[in-house]
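Lab notebook, bench 4. The sequencing result for the construct came back, and we need a structural model before the next group meeting so we can plan mutations. Quick request posted to the team channel:

Model the 3D structure of this chain.
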Amino acid sequence: MKFLLTTLLALVFYTAFSQKNQTTGNISGTVLLVDGQPAGSISVSLIDLAKHTLTDEHGHYSFNKISPGKHTIRIQMLGAAQKDLAVTVIAAQTVKADYQLSKENVQALQEVIIGGTSNKFSKKESVYSARLPLKNLENPQVYISIPKELIQEQLAVDLGSISKNVPGSGIPMLANQGRVTFRSRGFETEPMVRNGVAGFAYTAIDPANLERIEAIKGPSATLFGNNLSSYGGLFNRVTKKPYNGVGGEISLFGGSWDYKRMAFDINTPLNADKTVLFRLNGAGTYENNFQDAGYTKSFSVAPSFSYQITDKLSMLFDVEYGQAEGTSVVRFNPYTKTDPASKVVKVQNIRDMGFPYDKLFGNNDLAYRTQMVNVFAQFNYKMSENWTSQTVMSRSSTAIRGYISALNGVSDTELTAMVMRGYTSFIATDIQQNFTGDFKIGSHRNRLVVGLDFYNNTNTFDRVQVTGPKVNFVNPGNNAGISKKIIDDLAPTKAGKIRNEANADNSYAVYASDVFNINERLLAMVSLRLDRYQADGTTVVATDVNTGAFGQTALSPKLGLVYQVVKDRVSLFGSYMNSFTNKNGTKINGDMVKPEQANQVEMGVKGDLFNHKLVGTISYYDIKVKDIVRPDVANNTYSIQDGDQKSRGVEIELTANPFPGFNIIAGYAYNDSKAIGGSPDTEGLRPALSGPDKMVNFWLSYKFPQGALKGFGAGFGGNSGSSSYQTNTKTSKVIIPGYTMFDATVFYDQRRFRIGVKVDNLTSEKAWSVRLTPQSPARYLANLTLKF
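Done. Here's the predicted structure in token form:
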């Protein structure tokens, strides 16, 4: 009887369910970009039923169990006109509602998943470089993008390894707390930007959360301000965003010097309509130094959350948390003093100084600890068919505790360690409001962004500087000359070198940039920034005395012309760009110094040929920095503003896919930098720390596209740089020798897993950064990635 009753109830429920399905229907479709590639994370709405969803990475969407009759599908995308599609649902059937954009350029306005091109290392379109819907061929500024596909193939587990693919970047300078600095057109450039806004970290930045790195070249203060960019440009970290789907991967690494690493990437929708998405990235790493002492260990986690609130309003919220512990890397400042009466220039080469390549001159107990917490929120609102609003807020903070050291030469064979012990914190807040329009005046297309930008920076220092005992670095024996006990014992006697202070500054800016299509092939860009800088000065905690407060106002223009010789294939461009740096100081006549200025003129050609199989840029630039401030030697309480610097050169970068499975990346950078005026001791010389004047990079990769070996591949590449200077004056020079380093990898990539092996610096070439930090000899790395 029980069995009969159960069967009867099941039959009733099944019949009711079947009848309901037979009285409803489904809607599904695919949204494609202009070039036929899928458009991911696009808002799709069923207007009359108030249902919303997002397209997945293949551009697909669906609505199920919809009542029969006429309905309206609305497709909303930033930077494109909304599209309404009329559909008629029939019971027990699925109606298709596909759409492909015909004219709008959306690849540069929304982070979408774009696949399909065989030139897998060429992902040029950027939402950030111009803050406008511009294709690379329409942009009069040069930028290079390093996508995650290349990062994965090269097993690049740190920012320095990724930057090898940027022409002119050179050997990265690694600071004592893991912070990395690159070269760009002869100037130091840091990765201070994250998704187009402030995202600095004065510590190591783990690449686990990176979608790509964008190296935006040249003075860029007009759109990014002087807090985030240098005269050489900026490095923008583009992070992974949540997508409409369930998936992820776990990666395990192991290698030389007890290298251990685990990274993870997990993504899932949080609701049935897939309008609320969540993604979690993170990694943990441990590595010993290749030298006689030293280590680093770190952990990072980056949750991100997106919500399509309505068909017009979306939100992205994410957090970047990291903590690290380690020992300072070698930072050596050689003894450069000479006899004032001697007219002989003192020339030294780090290779010949006798400074040991494999010695840290420190102990593992002399360590630092860092913590980074960066919080970001972004709101996008489609105001109308032609206008969008974007509000972005970021809060970045880094705290450093413990011991940070440098090695200072006190003779040609001796050094002392300078150690800072204590606490330092850096906090930055960036709030931006952008209004972006894409409209026509007559028959001429205009793309306009108007923005407001507020940036606050607050720094706190509570530390003591201690000088350790002398050490003969040519014959050091077992004497490190530096340990936690030695420094702690000396610290109480160094009361005169305590730094316990706080400082802060604010920047208020308004900017606008307009791209005007004179005709279909010729366009002009006009941009301007008005920036007000207010330094609150430095307050000494012990006395509560504040000094150094000042304010400056600067204008930063940007102009550009682009002519497409072959539409969507080849363009010629020219531009004028500006950056500035706020400087404090008073001239002997009582006037305040002006902001230092850098102006660049650039011209070149961009190409995207043979159905994206050959993509590249050739450019010539000329940068002039003026009004460089230096101390007035005759009156040391005053400043002189009479220095200039010229930096000009040629850069070439290309990616190519000559035949299926084979990909090429190549770059060349030539930079001629020279100090003009200013200090007589450097007049006419290449500034120290400018890096090599000639650099080459390349990467060759082949992956079997079919057959029994499908998924198996190998890569080989190299980086070369000419000699450069750590010190370059008319009385003393410290030369850093040129270098050529090669890397190689083999891998097997399948749908559910990936195995790879990599060797960096195959020949164990000895090379040094601009801070004379020795680079690792041959390093072996193995990886297993499980995908789900």
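The chain is about 5% helix and 55% strand.
Will bring this to the meeting.
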